[in-house]
Amino acid sequence: MNTPNTPATSADTTETKPAGLLRRCLRMPIGVQSIIAVGLGATLGTFAPATGEQMKILGDVFLNLVQVVVLPLVFPLIVLGIARVESVKKVGRIAGKAILYFELVTTVILLIAVGLAKFTGIGKNAPVVGADAKDLEGMSQGIDFHELILHAVPKNIFAAFGEGNLLGAITFALLVGVAVAAIGEKSKPFADVLESVSTVMFKVVGYVIRVAPLGVLGFISYDVAHYGFGNLRSLAGFVAVVYAGLAIVVGGLFPLIAAFYRIRYVALLKSVANLAGIAFVTRSSESVLAPLMSRLEAFGLSRSTTSFVVPLGYSFNTDGSVLYQAAALVFLANAYGADTSLPALLLMVGVLVILSKGMAGVASASIVVLIAAGNSVGLPAEGVALLLGVDFIVDMARTGVNVIGNSLAAAVVDSSEKRREAKRGSDTSYAEVATEATDLQKETVQ
Description:
Elements: H1 10-27, H2 30-47, H3 49-54, H4 56-83, H5 88-120, H6 145-152, H7 157-163, H8 166-183, H9 188-210, H10 212-227, H11 230-234, H12 236-260, H13 265-282, H14 289-299, H15 303-316, H16 319-335, H17 342-355, H18 365-376, H19 381-445
């Protein structure tokens, strides 16, 4: 018989060590787990490419888990956010401020990208003859603004939810939110149900994010195995300029905007850094939409602003993507010897300002917009095919910057609203004091 004091055998020790190591790994922060997954994925894709390509299923499963919860969470948040706003007028004001901010910042970023690409001269002597337009089959249809409008106003909301139509869901949520606010107290049971749904969905998102490192492992393994690093050497200049431009935006432009609105930019960056990292690796900003709104609320932003501005920004405020497109157009213009004079560059910027707002709901959005913009300024689609080899590398960075840009946009709009409310409060207090002084004066005269 074994006594209670019998020491553990070596077999028992070897069984418990892996279990203890696994528990320690699972307790690591998600960011650390993701970094480990990047290293494992790169190693697997390099030395076992056949297996690396098969690992893509892990990334696809993770994205499916994310996408299945996005609309059930975004819809109630937008409805409740609008219902809590004291007036429909404020909803229109927030929307106007957000869209104006999106347009101004997008234009500045485009000018930065074009100027940087022109200064460095990227694309000259690029091997455009090696491009294959067959890689673009099914992508060159361009942007149809009539379809975009119909996309934003779906005829069947259940079909829109089934298709993952975020823009259509936002439009319908706006209408429902305004109706809930207009009905008032009678809509409280409906609002309580939506509140419960959003709470449950936040919990589900927490579960999904825990498996993000597996998604990272799958995507990195596939990317390294499928694309390799051969094209990166020939297009290193283009990749470097895009990353430099994104660094200027994140480290220069965004801090200036934050300082003007008295936003603690470094603290905001720390708050969303790991989510931007997940978006960077998965190349999907949707993968962090739900936790991003929760993180911004914890940072101090109001839910009514966050739940409206962030989803809207996912459709209309793609800062990283528009910088990539502008740099790519200048690259192709230099490669083909096209006109790169100031009027031609300004025309490129104008075209991208318009077309970049048609990216919502379009598959391979950046490539599609790039083809449409290139056609409008006379650049062939074959050149765009050349960039597909390094698209996954720049796609990671531009997706991460999109997350940071939308976080700052929500903070700017929220700061503007709080300043307005504070000013109204001080004006009201001053009016009350003035009224009391007048009444006291009248009493004294009497």
